[in-house]
Amino acid sequence: MRRRLRVNWRVSLRLLGGVLKWLAIPLAGPLVFTLIDGDPAVPFLVPIVITLAAGLGLERLETDTEMYTREAYLMVSLSWLCVGLLGALPFVIAGNGALAAPVNAVFESMSGITTTGATVIDDFGAHPRSILLWRQVIQWLGGLGILVLAISILSQLSVGGAQLMETESQTQDVNKLTPRISETARLIWRLYAGITLLAAGGLFALGLAGIAPNMDLFNAVSHAMTAVATAGFSPQPDSVGAFAPAAQWLIVPFMFVGATNFILIYFFIKGDWGRPLRNEEFRFYFGLVVGASILMAMLLITDPDLTTAGLEETARLATFQVVSLLTTTGFATVDFNAWSPAAKHLLFACMFLGGMAGSTTCSIKLLRWLIVIKSLRRDLFTTIHPEAVRPVRLSGSAVDEETIQDVFSYTMLSLVIFALATIFVVVDGARSGLGLSEFEAVSAAAATFLNIGPAFGIAGPFNSYGPFSDLTKIVMTLLMYVGRIEIVPVLVLFTPSFWRS
Amino acid sequence: MKILIVGAGQVGESIAKDLAPDHEVTVVDQQSERAEELAYSCDVLTVTGDGTELATLQEADLADSEMVIASTDNDETNIVICSTAAAHSEAFTIARIKHTNYLRTWEGVDRAFGIDSMVCTNLLTARSITRVVGLPAAIDVDPFAGGRVQMAEFEISEACPIVDQTVAEADRYDSLTFAAVIRDDEVVIPDGETIITAGDRVVIIGSPESVHRFADGLEPAHPGDSVEEVAIFGGSEIGYHVTRLLGERGVTPRLIEQESARARELAEELPAAQVMQSDATDVEFLERERINEADVVVAALESDEKNLLVSLLAKRLGVDRTVAIINTPSYVELFETVGVDVAINPRVVVAEEITQLTQSDAAENVALIESDKAEVIEIEVAGDSVLAGRPIQESVADLPDGVVIGAITRNASFVKPRGDTVIQPGDHVVVFVDAAAIDDTTAKI
């Protein structure tokens, strides 16, 4: 007799089908571009057919759409994996440059859908605009996907204390996730698209006004999409550094907004202007961004090897790189490899912060750091006063001890995986004769696992991940994948109890 | 007025005794012996039966009653009694309840449960404790005239600078009246020549500022020192409210609760306090946390004996003042003798409040001194009162002995009563009245 699985995987697959089916629409965007530029359309036609067929086919598998915790974990894990794999198809079929190799194509695609921004492309000229646009589109989709995932699913599944984030309502039935997801998706996607349009419009206006002459519509839309998604792909080999200072400044607030809890933004737009300031995590986020930018500017000013055109340039370089790495975007306006060790390590430290929970940001996230700091401070107090009962409070309300435990486990888990990944990159780098420095290896592991994008050294902002061995790239692809969906949904699939009762 | 009191416990008895002289009081109780006892001790009619049953209430002449007071020891019973009474009569209903959750339900809704007035023991007790804590050395504090007048009772110790002074010498404050001196359980109405001795209790009436200055003057050790360190033992509902009210005044109290789940709950609800989870009688803990440095310790544990123990422990460790909640009336005096500075009986507090609600329109506010030795009442002066339109020195002659006019408020401002002050109709006067003279006084004023 066949043993019954306790997870209704048919429901997960059916919902996955729903996701894949819709992937045909964004694929149609670059398809239009191939017609304009006269490039082959096949790289997009084939994936459209495949996604439609797979999507519609999977949807017939099951009529039930009732999803519970286990089905949600399975569906989330499968979605990011399948979209990552299918997203690589245009790269492989187009077969240009570095992206022709399947490992590279999957790396690039996964880096896209996980909003990482790590690239294997070394020669941007080898690729048609449609392929470059697909990279941007897939990142934008990744940003939207993570917003819906974070706000409607992860907060309900309480992954690593995610339930603490501000969500639109806590009153709905926790067990029935499906209506909640579609409702949140509707709310979020309009907001997300609106902010992206605003960014694109702003950038394009700068281009039209002649302030940033090379900012054409293609570049404006491309950078708007990956700024709001805090993702970091750019069709330009020297990233945002290719544009005038005004365009660089304009991108900063959009990266900042992309890493802000979208529910807060929603209420802010609805007229509740004080809401972000009442949120402790937002105040912490804002304070950190300002503080780190000022510190970075001071480090740049005092660096004797660095000459800048003036205070504006110093402030811009400092603010842009800090915001870019802290929000896990990964744009760059300068090759910060050339900066002093102090400045580089400050950027490295920023990688571990991340923006707010409930945003497109990656990394550990400030919500968790805030809880960690507060509970450590509490522990110091209770060391002196063992009988004191002192709840950890977030924006005034007490956080229960179990959630604090979750936050600590999650943070610890992240750091352990990061450490193991570092060791792997070092060892495999030595095996393949790359001769990586420790800092290069550490930063590359962090930049992929924490979904930042550029690292230091050979994987620096204007370099590529191409030189790494295929094995390292496969592991990094997995790191990006696991890191993006908050580790837990993937790891639980490997526990036997997930599949049995 | 015809008043129906359901529940002849301590509170019911106390109210019945207060009201019996002026009103037609009927008391309902389930226990026949208890009802009989009350019929003898105070002049009231009694009915034996279950107050939640309509038949019982009708037997007690509910239909003609103008007021129903539900004062049993059970919140739900009291609510049902009031609802029943409201459904079947026009009477004004008063429910005595312990827990604030019912108060929250009742508040803001017009006549929820059919209750016209809800008197919450735990909240009133907490308020009463907070007032006492706020005034160093006071053993009883009551506000009058919307807070513009305060009555306070102080115990005079050897160390007080006013010991062996005459009242005239001690009364250095504006807007303050020495209403009475209680010496060896006797109420003495002081004149300027009365000498204050150690062990006396003095009752003063005046503006809150002058009462505070007087209180500060009694404690030369900490001049002008307001209460800063407060430790509250017991996270009961009363303990919770005391902590909350003190927190609102800017004090950060320490609240000690033994049960860990309750401690956590309190800590979550009271961000302004420092909650600690420990046994209140753990001396090592008390010493380590330097409880002795507290200005005031409030004992709000579940039993009188524990409250006494904690108070005595605190005293031994060197705490200046202890305030304890004592539920058994006979313990109050005893505990104050052995070292508790202020013993507060929640039932007395609630009885005071209910009595106050039943006073005819003229008398608005009442405080009992030493349980029943005297009363401080607030009255709005009517045109036909003996006080109206005459200087105080003239009208005093018409008032019985044992009456002191403590303060006057006119158009919401404080007027110090002097011999030549003319009281006008509409003024509010706060009067100290010896128990013996109460009936005579209320009739004349």
Strand content of chain B: 25-35%
For the largest interface, the chains and their residue counts are:
A-B, 9 and 16 residues
User: First CA to last CA of chain A: what distance?
Assistant: 17 Å
Poorly predicted spans of chain A: 170-175
Structural class by SSE content of chain B: alpha/beta
Strand content of chain A: under 5%
Largest sheet of chain A, in brief, is: 2 strands, antiparallel
Distance from N terminus to C terminus of chain B (CA atoms, Å) equals: 19 Å
What this model shows, in words?
The complex is a heterodimer of chains A (501) and B (445). Chain A has 501 residues and is mostly helical. In chain A, 63% of the residues lie in helices and 2% in strands. Chain A has a two-stranded antiparallel sheet with strand order 2-3. In chain A, helix 3 (69-87) runs antiparallel to helix 6 (129-157), helix 5 runs parallel beside helix 18 (470-484) and helix 12 (280-301) crosses helix 13 (311-326). The longest helix of chain A is centred in the middle third of the chain and has 31 residues, at 178-208. Chain B has four domains: 2-115, 3-Layer(aba) Sandwich (Rossmann fold); 125-218, 2-Layer Sandwich (Alpha-Beta Plaits); 230-344, NAD(P)-binding Rossmann-like Domain (Rossmann fold, 3-Layer(aba) Sandwich), CATH 3.40.50; 349-444, Alpha-Beta Plaits, CATH 3.30.70.1450. Chain B is built from 16 helices and 22 strands. Chain B has helices at 10-19, 32-41, 54-59, 75-88, 100-106, 121-134, 167-170, 208-218, 237-248, 260-269, 283-288, 304-317, 329-338, 346-358, 392-395, 438-444; strands spanning 2-6, 24-29, 45-48, 67-70, 92-97, 117-120, 138-144, 149-155, 176-183, 186-188, 201-206, 230-233, 254-257, 274-277, 296-299, 321-325, 342-344, 363-369, 374-380, 403-410, 413-415, 428-434. In chain B, strands 3-2-1-4-5-6 form a six-stranded parallel β-sheet, with helices on both faces. Chain B starts with a strand and ends with a helix. At the A-B interface, strand 1 of A face helix 10 and strand 14 of B.
